[in-house]
Amino acid sequence: MYGALDVALAKAQLKLLIPYPNENRLKGACHNSLSANTVANIPPNTLQYSRLTIAERGRTLKICCCIKQVPATTDVKIDPETNTLVREGIENQINPFDLYALEEAVRTKERMADVGEESVVTVISMGPPWAEEALREAISLGADNAILLSDKAFAGADTWCTSYTLALALRKIEPDIVFCGMQAIDGDTGQVGPGIAVHLDYAQAAYVAKIESITSNKDGNGKLVARRLIEDGYEVVEVKLPAVVTVVKEINEPRTASLRGKMNAKKAEIPVWGPADIGADENKIGLQGSPTRVVKVMTPPCRAGGEKYEGEPDELAERFYDVLKCLEVV
Description:
- The structure is a single chain.
- This protein is α/β, with parallel strands linked by helices.
- The protein has one domain (about 5-290): HUPs (Rossmann fold), CATH 3.40.50.620.
- The protein contains ten helices and 14 strands.
- The strands form three sheets. Strands 1, 4, 7, 8, 9, 10, 11, 12, 13 and 14 form a ten-stranded mixed sheet that branches. A two-stranded antiparallel ribbon has the order 2-3.
């Protein structure tokens, strides 16, 4: 049984917490980047939807999603001069992990709408001019607008320069939440999302498998509670908004584009920003500003040698045993 004092304290601490539909309780430990708080065994119905959040702030909740266009093939070529991928003339796609981030951004917008709050989803990508195709696809999947960061000066950027460039663009937008895929399939570093958080001085939650709740960001006290994947299970963390969230594929199932979405994507105007538009330092962008370089790319040599045996199964089994015995394996 919960006493009246317990319920009153729970309501006082969590009255602004916005749970998603059909979720009226939160269990487990919640960790803030500045202080640790434990929220456990909260009595049902103490977490209520807040319809005061964004309206009282006088502006729309800004949600951003960073996506990358990657090769849709494993048959890639390397530029011998720069040791970077040759992206011209090959089929491309949105990085698969970024599709989950985009889906969660759109779902967050829909959940906010369910509680009477306005929000907008902006997708950002850095890449060559044809990366616009990926941005239009993102709009067809539910994003409201998109921005392309494209300039020759951005080419060849490593993860540090990429996160720096994206962070400058995001700083112009001032988002409340930034969603990213946990990694790109052409690099597999998983560094850009956390790098963006560092450049912006935002809180971050990595490898998120579920967004448990979002708290009002009125007066700069907004929080996000997420369940993140760790090696031996899950942990529930609480981060202060604004925040960067990188997601794993367990978080949702990406939707397919609707006819209305495709029409919106076709007529959408996508601005292109260059270094001057975001106030970038030329010494911190592109290949020139990258602190890491690919010095050499090589193909592993084919295995040579080996022995081939032929004969009846019993004979081969005995011979194989003798070989393992000689190698002191058995």
